[in-house]
Amino acid sequence: MPSDVEYSPVGEGLGMRDYWLYVWLRRAAVTAAHVTGLGLTLIISLLSRPGTSLFSWHPVCMSVAYCLCLTEGVLLFSAEGFPFCIKSRKCKVRLHWCCQALVLIAAAAGLGFMLASKSVSELPHLVSWHSWLGIGTVAATVLQAACGICLIFPKLLRLSSSPLRLKLKLYHATCGLVVYLLATVTVVSAMFSDWFQATVKGAAWWGFLLLALFPALVVMNQITNAYLPRKKLTS
């Protein structure tokens, strides 16, 4: 019995002129997301003045992990706007895993610097929403990486059936979106911290907020367009 749900290509049903305008806008948005992720990481690293204290390395490592590596690891699967124009799916998967490995390493380092800073200063741990969100984001990232390992090595879960692997891919992509949105919320919550508000004020603060939210919108659009089921149109 045929299914009434399919995963349809984006832009289907548009006229030729509207379609190319849509493609151009998507490419511009994805390219802007690349630039935004890199720019936000560089600016946060400069504001943190790494090396001045143990804490100064925390925002550097976390911005590298989630603003840069996580963003690039997702956007490289986009058909539009990837800087190196890589076509091979196998190569993209390998680069994705390299990015995710860097996310785990940088996040673990950032967490370690924060724990060390709190211990040296004799300050209590987990006393803010940002700290709880950060712990949740790191834990979700580890679980998502474990799911990705199962996709690369399906024999670990004996996933010899193609439908099961397709379902796991769908769950992996969906959970990846949740992790990215959780990371975005964590980054935004950091902007309400005493350190950030003492460093960035006025209109610049709102600019940082937009910079943090924009890549999340692009990533959300990419994943939902690729995996969100739509009902077939009947004539």
TrEMBL record:
Keywords: Electron transport, Heme, Iron, Membrane, Metal-binding, Transmembrane, Transmembrane helix, Transport
GO molecular function terms attached to this record: metal ion binding; transmembrane ascorbate ferrireductase activity; transmembrane monodehydroascorbate reductase activity
InterPro entries: CYB561D1/2 (IPR045150), Cyt_b561/ferric_Rdtase_TM (IPR006593)
Record-annotated Cytochrome b561 domain positions: 24-230
Key word Membrane present: yes
Entry's EC annotation: 7.2.1.3
SMART domains: B561
Superkingdom in the source lineage: Eukaryota
Protein name: ascorbate ferrireductase (transmembrane)
Naturally occurring in which organism (per UniProt): Gasterosteus aculeatus aculeatus (three-spined stickleback)
